[in-house]
C-alpha cells in the first residue's frame, strides 16, 4: 500500500520533525512493505535525514518549467493553484491513505490564510477526490483566529476518515467548529513515542547546585504581523535574561537551548542581555535543532523552563519537572495531564518572581515530582500502543477499488 505523510517538515521546527520521526518509526515497524511518500516544506532535507521519498507542497520535483513558475507567482497565482491541484491529483492517484501526523496542524499561529491553512485544505481535497482516506493522527487544534483560515482548516478536517487529538482542548475546539467528533479519539502526542536517549535510564546523579534548563523562543505574538511584535519580543528577552541571571546569581548553572532554528535569534539576544561575569553559576548554550538534541540537553538539567510545546513534552517524557511559559492552551493541557497545572504562565504575562519561586518549590521535593511524572508516562506508553493497533486495524489498510467521493461532499 502507499501512504502519504503531509506536514510542515524540514522547516526548522524540531517538534514537527519529531512527530514525523515518531510516525515513520511506527509505520516502518508495523507496515515494513508500505510505500511511503512525504509531502513537506523542505524535501531535500527530509529525504537526506529520513531516507524517504519526498515531494514539495506544490507537488513539484526538482526541475520546474519557467511557464509553471510564472503560473504559480504574481498575476498567475490562481491559475497556478489549479496547475498545482492537477499535479496533486496525479500524485494522489495511487495513494491509499494520507496521514497528517501530529503537530498543531489545525491552528493559524503565525500563519496567513493562504499559508498552511490553504495547503492542508488543498491536499485533503485532492486526497478525497482520488478516493484516499485521510487520517489526522494525534493532532493539535486551535485557536484559529482568521475567518478564512478557519474555513480552510474546518473543511479539511471534515474530509478526514479518522481524527484523533493530543489533548481535550483540541477535541473540544474541533467540536466547536461544528464537526461531529463522536467517532473521534483522544490519544497522546506522537512525539512521546520517540526513542529516548540511552542514558535516560541511568541512575540520576543529583547535582548540587541544581542545573536549570531554559528553552528559549523567538516569540513575537500570535499573529504573523502583530502590531506590538517588537515590544512583545523585547519584553520576553528582557525577562528571560533576568530569570537566567537571577538563577546564576543564586548559584545555579543555566543551560539555554532551542526548539526551532528561528530561536537562534532569541538565544543570541538573551546572551547579549546577560552580564559576562559576576554570577556564581555557569552558563552554557546548546543550539539544538532536533528533538533528540533537545532530549540530550534536558537530561543534563534538573528543572526545565520552556515555552515551545515539544520542548515541554521532551522534559516531561524524560521525567523532568518543567515550568511552562506557553503561548497557547496546548501547554496548559499537557501540564494538567501530568498534574502540573500550577506551574503554567503565559509567555506574554509571566512574572519573573513567580518563576523563581516555583523553581525553588520544585527543587525542594524533586524526587516526588519526578515520580508523579513517571507514573503518567507509563500510562501514555500504553495509549500510544492502543492507537497504533487501531490505525493498523481500521485505517492503514489497502483500499478496495477507487471510489470517487461526491465533489460536494469533499467541498462541504
TrEMBL record:
Show where the Polysaccharide pyruvyl transferase domain sits.
Answer: 13-327
Any single GO molecular-function term of the entry would be: transferase activity
Does Transferase count among this protein's keywords? yes
Keyword Transferase annotated: yes
Alphabetic keyword roster: Plasmid, Transferase
Which Pfam families does this one have?
A: PS_pyruv_trans
Q: Protein name, please?
A: Polysaccharide pyruvyl transferase family protein
